[in-house]
Write a structure and sequence with these properties.
This protein is of the alpha/beta class. Helices cover 39% and strands 20% of the residues.
Length: 438
């Protein structure tokens, strides 16, 4: 009698999503040990924060690659394919390589479980993080830029001290896990700080600076802030042409690869991080930093997709801070307003997000991403009616109908509210022949 066929290794990773979110480092540390500590085979830079951490990760990795390093980056979540999370030398890893790393992780889990060294199955994020560490080690990466998933202190990416850390803007998000007090959230994010580390902080809000500075003082880490940095930017077609002066160098003018004035803050954070890496022996000359700022690309972050009958602006804004940044961009670039297709997860502050977007929305198409976590479209419609009673609106349980309704009203529409929704719509647009505008 034959046994059941062994589940595909990538399917195995997805099967772990039922484990939900689990705070704690015991599981990921056991996995790393069972894999032979692959994360120790290259230099790691960790990027924490609420908003902007993905942008800083991409800018820094792009610059290090321009400097001639063999680089990797690990980000989350993905838009359409799991492979998006694992990038080596600017390319998503091949599926076969991911499958092999996932099989190594599964085998490590089996060994640990047999030895009684795991309290239960790992979470999806623990397993994918271990797979990233393994993938990068197998690929002879020199330096990896790692984006924190949730929080910092107990996030799987923080299994072991990185070489250096950046902390981007702190805002309220995942309040059921991190709370709503900015100083408390900052302390949780600053859990990535380890003794002797250099920490670059991109947020200038006093409660955040004070909280991170205190943790750095207690742990003997050196804090670098943007105080004294001069950043002058002019918008050109949605992208900023930036002149930047730090204590070490002058840069620019450089046209940022990512759209929106909020990217100035992210560019400053990435630049300071790269300067510190350069001083620590990871070469990052000025021309490579400028190349990283100009060459960074990050799908569904103020990304334009052209169709035959209109254009869609995709943005992964998924919390009030992200919605405010998006609204500022739209106010500058589309002062007359435009239709907004909006869908968000039920655990987000959707009312605050809709309030932020209301002044720049000529209409709201409220919809749902294809996940059980989505807030019902009817609930979002009621909130839109409350915060923007004069703005036309309609609710759709199907995102394709919502998009068509919006495109019938204007040649340019915006899709926002959820990374899951942005990923769904982006994949659908490409399947319909949509072309990404650089």
């Amino acid at each position: 009698m034959t046994g059941c066929p062994r589940m595909d290794a990538i399917d195995y990773l997805f099967s772990l999503e039922t484990q939900g979110i689990k705070f704690g480092l015991e599981g990921i540390r056991a996995l790393c040990e069972a894999l032979g500590h692959p994360q120790r085979q290259y230099r790691r830079v960790i990027v924490a924060g609420t908003n902007g951490k993905g942008s800083v990760t991409v800018m820094a990795e792009t610059a290090l690659r321009a400097a001639g390093h063999r680089t990797a980056r690990y980000t989350s979540p993905h838009l359409a394919r799991l492979e998006e999370r694992f990038v080596i030398d600017g390319r998503e890893v091949p599926t076969v390589a991911l499958r092999e790393a996932a099989e190594s992780v599964r085998s490590a889990v089996d060994r640990l479980a047999s030895a009684g060294r795991l309290a239960g199955p790992p979470t999806f994020f623990e397993a994918t993080t271990a797979a990233a560490f393994e993938l990068f080690a197998r690929s002879d990466v020199e330096v990896a830029v790692i984006e924190v998933g949730l929080g910092g202190r107990l996030d799987a990416t923080n299994a072991e001290a990185a070489m250096m850390a950046a902390i981007t803007t702190i805002d309220r998000d995942h309040e059921e896990f991190l709370g709503s007090d900015l100083a408390g959230i900052a302390r949780e994010k600053a859990g990535v700080v380890h003794p002797g580390m250099v920490v670059v902080l991109g947020d200038a809000k006093p409660p955040v600076v004070e909280a991170v500075a205190e943790i750095c003082r207690v742990r003997g880490a050196r804090l670098v802030t943007a105080a004294g940095v001069r950043a002058d930017g002019e918008s050109e077609g949605g992208r900023v042409r930036l002149d930047l002066t730090t204590a070490r160098r002058r840069y620019g003018p450089v046209r940022l690869g990512l759209r929106g004035r909020h990217q100035i803050e992210n560019a400053v954070t990435a630049t300071l991080l790269l300067e510190e890496l350069d001083a620590a022996g990871v070469r990052a000359p000025a021309e490579a930093i400028e190349a990283g700022l100009a060459g960074a690309r990050w799908p569904a972050r103020l990304e334009l997709v052209r169709l035959g009958h209109g254009t869609v602006l995709l943005d992964a804004a998924h919390n009030p801070g992200g919605a405010r940044a998006l609204a500022a961009y739209l106010a500058a670039e589309q002062p007359g307003g435009l239709p907004v297709v909006f869908g968000a997860m039920r655990d987000k502050d959707t009312r605050a997000m809709l309030e932020a977007l209301a002044p720049v929305a000529s209409a709201f198409a409220l919809t749902e991403a294809r996940t059980p976590r989505s807030c019902p479209a009817g609930t979002l419609e009621a909130q839109a009616a409350a915060v923007a009673p004069g703005v036309p609106r309609a609710a759709f349980d199907d995102r394709d109908r919502a998009l068509d309704w919006a495109l019938a009203r204007a040649p340019l529409v915006c899709v926002a509210g959820s990374i899951f929704l942005a990923g769904d719509v982006r994949a659908a647009l490409i399947a319909r022949g949509g072309e990404i505008e650089d």
